[in-house]
């Protein structure tokens, strides 16, 4: 049997890897990452881009780490799809806190894995869905697959009952109310709204969603920041299916693992034809984020609320090209 050799890490492969990474979600589509290849070690470094941080919404950098973790998941998935067995190290050098991950690309994958190829294909089709869901409930077996995807990355996906879901939505509504009246948060969010074709980052008008006419499901109200972009309210699903992404710790490595888990869950949802949107508002207020955990499940820290359902695809948001985020 012939020996398996690793793919060539040439310019086209590098562009594919980085393009997959930047397709990951980030709060307000800030894309707070940079990449650098170290040729001597075949390590692709993933670094924070602090100039793209959100100090009002995310003073600790937690959401930035979650976003970068999602990019690392896409990078790892693309590497496996292209034929590598990537080695991922999170926070590899304590002396460089902005170096959040290193992905080593010198070992070949022993064989192709169809499930990995399906996740890779989903990278390019995943978009946040901010409109009402109109289809049947997501089957419990499919939701169990999402929970397993989170566990594979060292996180947990909790599927609360109807009473707990209502409580989480109340927390989200309170966070949304605070976001719209806090001057610093309003100004920061407004800076990331974009006119059509205005740039490769931020939230374009086409991606904005309506508010729930019944006030049951508090989507992020960009219309309150830009009244000229306000959409007419619509009726959302009567029984939203919400999940809570949790980690047992709450430090930088936990946040990165939460990002890996988040993107694994979102891509698994895309493979299943399930739409998803992120309810991050309560994560932006420390005491509301603390309340979002369910003490009945032991010590854990909420990292994201995710809404699942069937309905129309979300509108794509722009991405910076690989050449713009690749150093060296």
Automatic annotation (TrEMBL):
Coiled coil: none annotated. One of its GO terms (molecular function) is oxidoreductase activity. Residues 178-194 have a biased composition (Basic and acidic residues). Gene3D superfamilies: NADH Oxidase (3.40.109.10). Residues 178-204 are annotated as: Disordered. This is Nitroreductase domain-containing protein.
């Amino acid at each position: 049997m012939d020996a398996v050799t690793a793919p060539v890490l040439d310019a086209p492969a590098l562009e594919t890897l980085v393009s997959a990474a930047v397709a990951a979600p980030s709060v307000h589509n800030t894309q707070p990452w940079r990449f650098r290849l170290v040729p001597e070690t075949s390590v692709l470094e993933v670094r924070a881009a602090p100039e793209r941080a959100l100090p009002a919404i995310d003073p600790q950098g937690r959401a930035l780490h979650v976003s970068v973790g999602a990019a690392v998941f896409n990078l790892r998935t693309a590497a496996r799809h292209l034929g590598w067995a990537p080695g991922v190290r999170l926070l590899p050098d304590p002396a460089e806190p902005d170096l959040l991950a290193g992905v080593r690309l010198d070992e070949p994958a022993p064989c192709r894995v169809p499930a990995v190829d399906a996740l890779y294909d989903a990278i390019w089709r995943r978009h946040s869905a901010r409109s009402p869901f109109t289809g049947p409930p997501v089957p419990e077996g499919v939701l169990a697959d999402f929970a397993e995807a989170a566990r594979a990355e060292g996180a947990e996906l909790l599927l609360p009952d109807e009473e707990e879901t209502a409580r989480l939505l109340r927390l989200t509504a309170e966070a949304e109310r605070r976001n719209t009246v806090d001057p610093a948060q309003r100004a920061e969010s407004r800076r990331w709204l974009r006119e059509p074709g205005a740039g490769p980052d931020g939230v374009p008008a086409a991606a904005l969603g309506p508010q729930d006419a019944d006030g049951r499901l508090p989507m992020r109200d960009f219309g309150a920041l830009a009244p000229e972009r306000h959409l007419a309210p619509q009726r959302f699903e009567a029984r939203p299916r919400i999940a809570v992404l949790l980690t047992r710790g709450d430090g930088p490595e936990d946040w990165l693992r939460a990002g890996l888990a988040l993107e694994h869950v979102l891509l698994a949802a895309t493979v299943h034809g399930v739409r998803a949107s992120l309810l991050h508002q309560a994560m932006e207020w420390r005491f509301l984020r603390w309340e979002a955990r369910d003490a009945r499940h032991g010590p854990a820290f909420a990292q994201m609320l995710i809404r699942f359902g069937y309905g129309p695809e979300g509108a794509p948001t722009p991405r910076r090209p690989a050449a713009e985020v690749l150093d060296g």
